């Protein structure tokens, strides 16, 4: 006998469709602004955790565009944005927004940056959209509905042995943390095919989802960095988590095709990838 409360869908198909449509349009508009409106003399507007943790005027403009678009259409929703958007909301839906994931890449004119928008219902991510305008790509997923790249279904790559796995990672903005991350990397690198450091967690997670990476891990991500990409990777068949038995978090985020994930996660635990 099914339990109607336990088995009740977290969210109706109609609400999922509405949230996905809004996230896709908001990401499209923000991506267009960022791609076409980038000033030639773009500079640093402010710094956060360190002198290299930067914010540009375009980060702020992108977040303003996204929150304005969404709040106009769903005024009761909550917000959590990297550049300060914060509202409790009363609908149970919260938007988790990285207006530019890969800010340093964007600042330097490198193409690997994205707009990442996730919708959470009662704390669970139910919709994720990652738009990478310079790649001409938008990835998306709805909880239980699979993952897509430019509306074509995507799946993780068939798992190679860890020694032949291409693994993405990233590094923090604090020198002491980077030193610890380099030590972990030094131990890991000889045990995998190679490492890629793209500079955008959202894109890295989408690359796991579509088979361009076998796995990805990083310590120190914020919810807005991984909320959308983690759902997209999971819906594409990846295993995602933090430390063993823990969900993806600031402490550690790991994603990969199941067999690669199962080999990588315990190794990262042994190497202490979860602490500085
Ligand atoms: C970035 C992450 C990336 C990490 C960078 C930075 P931001 O987010 O997506 O994975 O390695 O250090 O945190 O700051 O560009 O939104």
Automatic annotation (TrEMBL):
Keywords (A to Z) from UniProt: Hydrolase, Magnesium, Metal-binding
Catalyzed reactions: a myo-inositol phosphate + H2O = myo-inositol + phosphate
GO molecular function list: hydrolase activity
Listed EC numbers: 3.1.3.25
Coiled coil location: none
Cofactor: Mg(2+)
Recorded superkingdom: Bacteria
Protein name as it appears in the record: Inositol-1-monophosphatase
Organism: Streptomyces ochraceiscleroticus
